[in-house]
Amino acid sequence: MERRYTFGKEEHLCGKTAIDELYKTGESFFLYPFRAQYKEVSEESVPVRCLVNAPKRRFKHAVDRNRIKRLMREAYRKNKHALCDTMKEAGATMQIAITYSGDTIESQAFVEKRMRRVLDQILKGKDGKRLEQK
Fold first, then answer.
1. Which residues fall within 8 angstroms of residue 47, CB to CB, at 6 or more apart?
2. CA 20 to chain centre
3. Is 129 part of any domain?
4. Alpha-carbon distance 134 to 128, whole Å?
5. Residue 134 within a domain
6. What is the pTM of this model?
7. Parallel, antiparallel or unpaired: strands 93-100 and 34-41
8. How far is Cα 117 from Cα 85, in angstroms, rounded to an integer?
9. pLDDT tens, 103-119?
10. Residue 89 lies in a domain
């Protein structure tokens, strides 16, 4: 089976109540230049839904925020499969919010390398163990 590297609309986390709930009750960690919030949920149509964010407080110009979000979405799209496959096998679903916390715009290679580490950390969970299958 050929793997499709897409990040479609159904995989985007949207909706104020879902996002607020994730930020209130989700677990978080920081791995430069990202801050990640994640939470296992039920009743989702896809295994992982993701939100990427670049704060206006750090990047005043919209072109800079858009560039950062584009880099983050591309890095996530290329590296999400290990997380998605594990969640499918476990029969679980997850919501993720990844915020760019750096002060400068990093290169695509650096963003992709760090995104891989962020997704691995989410996969391991807060206790350093892999997410358990249900």
1. 83, 84, 87, 88, 92, 93, 94
2. 16
3. no
4. 18
5. no
6. 0.86
7. antiparallel
8. 16
9. 999 999 999 999 999 99
10. yes
